[in-house]
Design brief:
This protein is of the alpha+beta class. The protein is built from seven helices and 20 strands. The chain binds FE2/S2 (inorganic) cluster and fe (ii) ion (FE2). Keywords: 2Fe-2S, Iron, Iron-sulfur, Metal-binding, Oxidoreductase.
Length: 360
């Protein structure tokens, strides 16, 4: 598997940004091991309901804070107390700030160095998100809002599809944003009338209008999509149609060159004036499944392709080089991001066959 260095992305192995680490239901008061960015971490929910993410290994003698089922700390229900997590080995306990707050046998003595690393997490839209930053600073762009639909009445929430752990560098997934030529063979589009990318600082949009083999019936009727990344790893797409819907695709590096991918789709089944029925939920699930299958067509390619460190780009292909430059901003110091924005910001239309009266 090709690594960040092979793509010449920048000085950091893993990018800066917001990343999905788990469906929210997986964060409970039973601490759970997770591994991303080449690091072992532990996800747990404090008794207040707040999720916490901490480094996995205890500074005392290195026990794993989650991987235990037999310690009396676990049996006696002392693994999570309040917002703190207790090590199963000798019982040292750590607060959500990472500082040790109890050593059961040390008569109140706690060394200052007894602390574990903590990572910023936010729960939103049924997902636990982590801010990952090689510079270990506060976020310099916000976590996406997912169209605000999660809290809107009339919308059926997504269930999370795990699409697999792919032996691919995430750049191969992000490349999709510029990839106009895969829509017809992979996704069954037809007659592409418009394809453009707009780069706006940490955001990149893909505007797409085309017919489709099965999704639209009328000859000259177009599906029109606005799909965008906010930061390096979170794709969102707002879709009109029989049901308005909203796609989320998130991917997170596990190791350099190994990437986990998830998918979800929210569906608006009514205007919020009436309750959501079981039939509505079933219809929404079916809608999500159709969307999952479309993504699975990309996943099958990613799974088996070799790494593409230097695409052989035609002028009819989309702006891959510009997109990769945009993506590189997350692998370098944030102080250099402004320079990248100056170079890449703007609109690039690869296909524009719209009739004059369609052009706004
Ligand atoms: S290794 Fe964690 S308390 Fe000793
Ligand atoms: Fe695709």
């Amino acid at each position: 598997m090709a690594k960040t260095e092979d793509y010449g992305l920048g000085e950091y192995v893993f990018p800066r940004g917001w990343f999905m680490i788990a469906p929210a239901a997986e964060a409970t008061t039973v601490p759970k091991e997770v591994r991303f960015f080449g690091e072992d971490m532990v996800l747990y929910r404090g008794e207040s309901g707040t999720p916490h993410l901490v480094e996995a290994y205890c500074p005392h003698m290195g026990a794993h804070l989650a991987r235990n089922t037999t310690s009396y700390v676990v049996h006696d229900g002392e693994h999570v107390q309040g917002e703190s997590i207790r090590c199963p080995f000798h019982g040292w306990r750590f607060g959500p700030d990472g500082q040790c707050d109890d050593i059961p046998y040390a008569e109140g003595f706690i060394p200052k160095a007894a602390c574990i690393r903590t990572y910023p997490v936010v729960e939103r839209a049924g997902i636990i998100w982590m801010w990952h930053d090689p510079e270990q600073k506060e976020p310099d762009f916000p976590l996406p809002g997912f169209g605000g639909h999660w809290d809107e009445p009339g919308w059926v929430h997504w269930k999370i599809d795990h699409m697999g752990d792919l032996n691919s560098h995430p750049i191969e997934i992000v490349d999709n944003m510029a990839d106009v030529a895969h829509f017809i063979p992979i996704h069954g589009s037809s007659n592409i009338s418009y394809f453009a990318n707009e780069f706006i600082d940490h955001i990149v949009h893909q505007y797409f209008s085309a017919g489709h083999r099965t999704l639209v019936s009328e000859e000259d009727q177009d599906l029109t999509l606005d799909t965008w990344y906010e930061g390096p790893s979170i794709l969102q797409s707002e879709m009109a149609g029989d049901y308005p819907s909203f796609i989320m695709i998130a991917h997170t590096p596990i190791e350099d060159g190994l990437t986990r991918v998830w998918h979800g789709l929210m569906v608006k089944v009514n205007d919020g004036s009436k309750p959501i029925t079981e039939e509505d939920r079933a219809a929404a699930l079916q809608y999500q499944e159709a969307s999952r299958l479309a993504l699975a067509q990309d996943v099958e390619i990613w799974q088996y392709k070799r790494a593409c460190t230097r695409p052989m780009v035609l002028k009819f292909d989309g702006p891959f080089a510009r997109l990769r430059k945009w993506y590189g901003q997350f692998y370098n110091q944030r102080s250099e991001a402004g320079e990248v924005h100056k170079k890449v910001n703007g609109l690039v239309a690869t296909v524009d066959k719209r009739k004059k009266d369609q052009v706004a």
